[in-house]
Amino acid sequence: MNRFIKNCLVITLGIIMVLFLLDILYTKVYENAFPRNKTQHILNLKPGTEFDYVFLGSSRTENFIMPSIIKSETKKEALNLGTQGARLGDMNLFLRLLIDKKVKIKRLFVQVDYIYNFESSSDIVHSQALPYIRSNTIIKNYMNRVDSSYFKNYYIPFYRYASNDYRLGFREFFASSINKKSKTDFSNGFVPLFNSINQGEKHTASLPNTILEKNKSLIEIDALCTANNIKVTYFCAPFCSGLVANNYLSKLKEKIPDFKDFSTVIKEDSLFQNCSHLNKNGAEAFTRHLITALNL
Known about the structure:
Structural class: alpha/beta
Protein name: DUF1574 domain-containing protein
Keywords: Membrane, Transmembrane, Transmembrane helix
Largest sheet: 5 strands, parallel
């Protein structure tokens, strides 16, 4: 019996040691790898980097805003930090990281539409930030406030990687370890879509019938901008002609008085890949519209 207990303890200690070593190895690789997502890109920006315009949002920013056109037409430096599936909680974290890196932002643009109804962070950005939960104070403090699994992610070795295997597992670890570059050019952040809505088919997108009383993440973003002298503009990107608005954007305008509604500025459905996302030609048209409408 004593021998059995001893063997169990040895095996348990061995497993714990392996988990500790794997945690250290994965963390070192992610911390030193060439950026493969926008969270890593922010963390790798040089302190004091300056941008005239920074865009925060979901894929409805990532696939919509072309910094290359802004630069060619206005001579201004722009950065698209839109991220697939991002919510206002993610934008809150991104802004905190930018401020902590002392990145200078003359004007910030934050995409707000149906995501106003979500205060939390997305699984995508949450997993991108987890490798830095012990080394970056901003991420640590933010996760401590919003992550229901903070204790396990922070204290249990390798738990954060095992529980997020789809995005932080061996495949991504290996790609990071050999410094495999992402297909995204993070220096501008735009990701193009190339298909078009099939003509003759009915395509729709519906906005919610109800709206959150207030979004704490947006309130924090607003406060951060005020405290750091950053001019912020909130906007809604275009939808196709099949949008069922449910008066949602009018309600959003009441919540955000300086809100810019661009939901209907792109009239041709051929410029959309689907009802919620512009294709590359549509992104070019929308970017040019922003330059004029916002006097960039």
